[in-house]
């Protein structure tokens, strides 16, 4: 098979999954906008979490547009309406009251790449903290004992 044929076959196979992705989204006006614009960098369904309020979805769309999402200005409001209707904010679990005094502390580390938007922290079993660096396309690791960031 020639290199050109191989590339075409790869493109066809990759695109064959796109209609299936949009089938998983709830039906309604704006579904096509969501399928076309929200699955480019990540799958939409992996990002809706517990949903958002209308203002929350407005903020999410503003952040995505700031990151370069390919959404025409006149499509933002119809997409926000679809997302708000399809993925409304869900109730949150009730808080737990701890009897007696409790001590809480927070530790903050400066990201080595200013403005890189550290994201999605994960505490590992060895005590380290891993995170994604959204605007630098890297993983970061913090050693809380030494403060070293790699």
Strand order, largest beta sheet: 1-2-3
In what range is the share of β-strand residues? Answer: 5-15%
In total, the number of domains comes to 2
CATH structural fold name of the largest domain: Cytochrome Bc1 Complex, Chain D, domain 2
Sheet having the most strands = 3 strands, antiparallel
What structural class is derived from the secondary structure elements? alpha+beta
Q: If you average the pLDDT, what whole number results? A: 81
Total helical elements: 5
**Radius of gyration over all CA atoms, rounded:** 20 Å
**So what's the CATH class of the largest domain?**
Mainly Alpha
Instruction: Give the fraction of residues assigned to helices.
Output: 25-40%
Low-confidence stretches: 3-23
Q: Write the CATH architecture name of the largest domain.
A: Orthogonal Bundle
- Tell the overall outline: globular
- N to C succession of SSEs: HHHHHEEE
Q: What is the β-strand count? A: 3
End-to-end distance, in Å? Answer: 43 Å
Assigned CATH superfamily of the largest domain: Cytochrome c-like domain
Outline the structure in words.
With 150 residues, the chain is α+β, with helices and mostly antiparallel strands. The protein has two domains: 26-91, Orthogonal Bundle (Cytochrome Bc1 Complex, Chain D, domain 2); 107-150. The protein has five helices and three strands. It has helices at residues 3-16, 18-23, 31-37, 54-66, 76-86; strands spanning 118-123, 129-133, 138-142. A hairpin with a 5-residue loop joins strand 1 and strand 2. The longest helix is centred in the N-terminal third of the chain and has 14 residues, at 3-16. It is globular. The chain starts with a helix and ends in an 8-residue tail after the last strand.
């Amino acid at each position: 098979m020639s290199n050109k044929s191989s590339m075409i076959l790869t493109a066809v196979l990759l695109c064959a999954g796109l209609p299936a992705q949009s089938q998983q989204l709830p039906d309604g006006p704006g579904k096509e906008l969501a399928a076309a614009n929200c699955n480019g960098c990540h799958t939409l369904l992996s990002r809706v979490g517990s949903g958002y309020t209308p203002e929350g979805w407005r903020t999410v769309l503003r952040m995505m547009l700031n990151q370069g999402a390919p959404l025409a200005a006149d499509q933002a409001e119809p997409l926000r309406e679809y997302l708000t209707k399809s993925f409304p904010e869900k109730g949150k679990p009730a808080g737990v009251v701890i009897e007696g005094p409790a001590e809480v502390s927070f530790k903050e580390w400066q990201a080595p790449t200013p403005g890189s938007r550290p994201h999605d922290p994960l505490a590992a079993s060895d005590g380290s903290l891993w995170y994604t660096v959204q605007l630098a396309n890297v993983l970061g690791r913090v050693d809380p004992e030494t403060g070293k960031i790699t």
